[in-house]
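Handout, section 4.2: multi-component inputs.
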Amino acid sequence: MLDKNGIAKRIAQEVRDGMYINLGIGIPTLVANYIPEGINVVLQSENGLLGIGPFPKEEEVDADLINAGKQTVTMRPGSALFSSAESFAMIRGGHVHLTILGAMEVSEQGDIANWKIPGKMVKGMGGAMDLVASAENIIVAMQHSSKDGQSKLLKKCSLPITGIKCVKKIVSDLAVLEVMPQGGFKLLERAPGVSVDQIKNATEGSLLVEGEIPEMKL
Amino acid sequence: MINKVVKNAQEAVHDIPDNAVLMLGGFGLCGIPENCISALLKKGVKGLTCISNNAGVDDFGIGLMLKTRQVRKMISSYVGENAEFERQLLSGELEVELIPQGTLAERIRAGGAGIPAFFTPAGVGTEVAEGKETRVFDGKTYLMESWLKADFAIVKAWKGDTAGNLIYKGTARNFNPMMATAGKITIAEVEELVPLGSLDPNEIHTPGIYVQRIFQGNAYEKRIEQRTVTRI
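Output:
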């Protein structure tokens, strides 16, 4: 089983040289720590920054420079700053190559739910609906099951959805899965020490298992 | 040049009436008009509709106006950092319209640019789409969204001149430039008010045509929500 950093490490392997990438809050933010040497990418922040750098040193902290999670950040050489309208023009216009975000549930059709729990949590969707409706390549970082053991990879989302038929790939604590165009989760890789049966038991939606399933290399 | 300078925040917001529709710039607490929010608190106007990406935190930003119950309705994309907000929302005391962030930004831009509506993919198939017109372009479904305008748009910039030209700093730009265009009256508070001719016209983000009132604010707190540093 993978911890949060393990999930981030595996997702980092999906990153290609030259990509512009939007990282969501939580596990996706950690992906930046594992992008291999020699792979040059530009990270986009929805609040108006291309070229997010590492967190600042104490003396570099600038209240006017934050990421979408409201954390203080720095800028890499060659960064650009812009308005929220421009930022979402980049996103909707298909200029961002890869979006990595978290999810509460994903359906076997690629629907995603990650913004609302009726009667409990009403934080709002922020930029998630714009991102999932527009990105060509969406990878979801998530836990395979809830804390009480309920599968989060479902036939149909039970929570209010954020977007339809948009998730292409999922990296969970148990597995890497691809959402098939005709529906269903295709098992690509197992997390270290996790069996195919464990993944089957934790997946409510239809799971496609073809041949030998390799273990992830981290 | 027309002189748009007012003395301070009190003078800038003096004629904002009860039940006004306001836009307030900022993303989280970054780039919010701190001085005008304080002046609105002091003035005690009520029944406000506030269009702002976030609702501040419990004890800063718009959160302060929620505490004093001056806000009737919030139009935002994300309100997660505010417990009082969540309480008023779940109890039905506060009306809230949650809008995808890119749609919110574009609706404001459209309001200022004279575009009554546009189509966006954000929210298709979700509860955001309920009751809205959809149309298919090149095989993909899009949702019609309409412009947003305000009685008063209140923005925060880094530098401004007496003609209302504005320059923002860092990610404090966010919603401020679009909001500046979408207010019947736009109020700009700036950290540094400079004389005409001292800003390079090549560097202006918001041309002064959009701004009716400008003043130099003071005592900016610029509170940081998530101070995150590298430990080396």
